[in-house]
Design brief:
The protein is built from nine helices and eleven strands. Strand 1 and strand 2 form a beta hairpin. Helix 1 runs parallel beside helix 2 and helix 8 packs parallel to helix 9. The radius of gyration is 18 Å and the shape is globular. The protein starts with 21 loop residues before the first strand and ends in an 8-residue tail after the last strand.
């Protein structure tokens, strides 16, 4: 007889048959909703984040992303504005009636980031930072858990198990591409993972096509592919001046590219039974 017992429990559909749905500042995540999270890779200046947030809010985006503490491969790369960046991010979000998602990198930053964010983001490098996961499992704020760039789906779900086991059931899984032999793109977007995880877990599954591809001009089709594959939302990097961005400018999309993405997502949503959480695209 085939052994179907899984090493994870609380994240499994065997444990909970109904899909996890929860709200963040009035934004419903999971279920029939399709969420669109957008913003710059990094908060660079007060003017920059306010300009981007103002634009996104007029497009109906309700969750603003932006990094204040940036884990970078090179120690010489821009490391973020830290708490100053968090302040700018929250001010921009509050002014435009948006929720905030930002990355937390270490246990000693959890309390500080808590003051400014509505959703904690655990990045690919920290997916198996178990002390951080245990700390976040005690929080009353949701956590987006990005898949490690070399992690299996089972390892990803076991990392999420740490969060639920500690008491935090409001968890979003985010596929952001994995490292393979292919180097034409930054990573390889594993859309198999979206479909498979939806059969294994009740947690909402998002996709980050910006990190997954690292190529601005293919973010658009990968957004649509993610939606068609069954994702519950996407997170994209949008910048008012990508060519001058201090972090990941080559994958950050221009405002006019984002306009087209929202239009096409809205059109596709009616075909697959999803309900976009943003208004139909309007010219601004």
């Amino acid at each position: 007889m085939e052994n179907t017992r899984k090493p994870y429990q609380l994240v499994s559909l065997d444990w909970k048959q109904e899909r996890t749905v929860f709200s963040v500042k009035g934004v419903e995540i999971g279920g029939d909703n399709f969420n669109l999270i957008a913003g710059p890779c990094a908060v660079e200046t007060e003017e920059q984040i306010h300009t981007i947030a103002s634009y996104l809010s007029k497009k109906g985006v309700k969750i603003l992303r932006g990094g204040a503490y940036k884990p970078r491969t090179s120690p010489y790369s821009f490391q973020g504005l830290k708490e100053e960046g968090l302040k700018y991010l929250k001010e921009a979000a509050d002014r435009n009636n948006m929720a905030v998602i930002t990355e937390v990198m270490d246990t000693n930053l959890v309390d500080k980031v808590y003051e400014y964010t509505d959703i904690f983001q655990v990045g690919t490098r920290n997916m198996q930072n178990f002390q951080l996961l245990k700390a976040l499992s005690k929080s009353d704020k949701p956590v987006m858990l990005k898949r490690g760039w070399s992690s299996t789906i089972e390892e990803w779900l076991l990392a999420a198990e740490y969060l639920l086991l500690g008491g935090n059931s409001n968890v979003i899984l985010c596929e952001r591409g994995i490292r393979t032999f292919e180097n034409s793109t930054r990573n390889t977007l594993d859309l198999n993972a979206v479909g498979l995880v939806k059969t294994l877990s009740h947690l909402p599954v998002f996709v980050d096509p910006s990190q997954a591809t690292g190529v601005r001009n293919i973010v658009h089709p990968m957004c649509l592919a993610a939606m068609a594959a069954g994702a519950d939302g996407i997170m994209v990097e949008v910048h008012n001046q990508p060519q001058e961005a201090l972090s990941d400018g080559v994958q950050s999309i221009y405002f006019d590219q984002f306009d087209k993405i929202t239009e096409d997502i809205y059109s596709l949503s009616s075909l697959i039974g999803k309900r976009p959480d943003f208004a139909k695209s309007v010219k601004i």
